[in-house]
């Protein structure tokens, strides 16, 4: 697996461990921020939400993390 994806998966695992007992999953802003290792801005969150809503198939966490990193890197290289 890509080292960048491995590092992001580790950050997501840490965020999951920080949840309270009653929490199920992570909110999108928390998840995306863990993936990119910085606070996610509204534009990126909107892009992730749009991509998620247009996908009608289930994906794994690794696929979500990898796709979010690709989207983040694509946006940064095109701005």
For the structure shown, list the relevant keywords.
79 residues, mainly alpha, 4 helices, 68% helix, globular
General description of the model:
The model has no long low-confidence stretch (mean pLDDT 93). By secondary structure, this protein is mostly helical. The chain has helices spanning 3-17, 28-36, 42-54, 61-77. Helix 1 (3-17) packs across helix 2. The radius of gyration is 12 Å and the shape is globular. It has one domain (3-77).
Q: How much of the polypeptide forms β-strand, as a percent range?
A: under 5%
Summing up helix and strand content along with how strands pair, one would put the structural category as: mainly alpha
Q: Give the low-pLDDT segments.
A: none
The average pLDDT score comes to: 93
In whole angstroms, the N-to-C terminal distance is 27 Å
> Sheet bearing the most strands, described?
none
3D shape: globular
Q: If helices are DSSP runs of H or I spanning 4 or more residues, what is the number of helices?
A: 4
H-E string: HHHH
In total, how many domains does the architecture comprise? 1
Give a topology summary.
Elements: H1 3-17, H2 28-36, H3 42-54, H4 61-77
Helix pairs in contact: 1-2, 1-4
Briefly characterize the structure.
The protein is an all-alpha fold and 79 residues long.
